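sorry for the late reply, my laptop died twice this morning and i had to redo everyting from scratch. anyway the thing you sent over, i finally got around to it. pasting the sequence first so we're on the same page, its 155 residues, then the predicted structure underneath. double check i copied it right bc i was rushing
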Amino acid sequence: MPTPDANVESLVNEALAVVRSDRLPYLATVEGDQPRLRPVTPVKTDGFIVYIANLRTHSKTAEIEANPRVELCYLDGHNDQVRITGRAEAVDDPALRDEFAASAHFLPRSIQGLTSPDFMLYRIIPTRVRFMKGWALAYEDVPIPGGATESGTGD
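ok and here's the structure:
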């Protein structure tokens, strides 16, 4: 019989596998009282910390500035799902932006450069991670390694 630590490790690994396999998760933000959902391409992930590039002129920038609470939803080919609830914060660290620049070959042409005042880099710090296996219709809370958590309900 697996130990509780082995079960936790397995759950974390399953959730991370879904995050790695889905290259086009959906990002939820709020505009006033209207939810907004759109696919995004994360530029980097570090465990459950996700980095998203954006343009200052895009609506999600204003939405995140007004309310930094966001959620990402990942879905793999087996219908396993991971939802990362967190707070988006702008990244101004030149070293991190330089690291990002080294692998930025996939950025859209509309981003004229990482030093452009129009370029935004967001780090989404998870406060809650949930995993659902297939269509189990029940989420499991995934421990965030070294991270904070928030309680809450929802599907």
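The chain has a mean pLDDT of 86.
thats about all i looked at so far, will dig more tmrw
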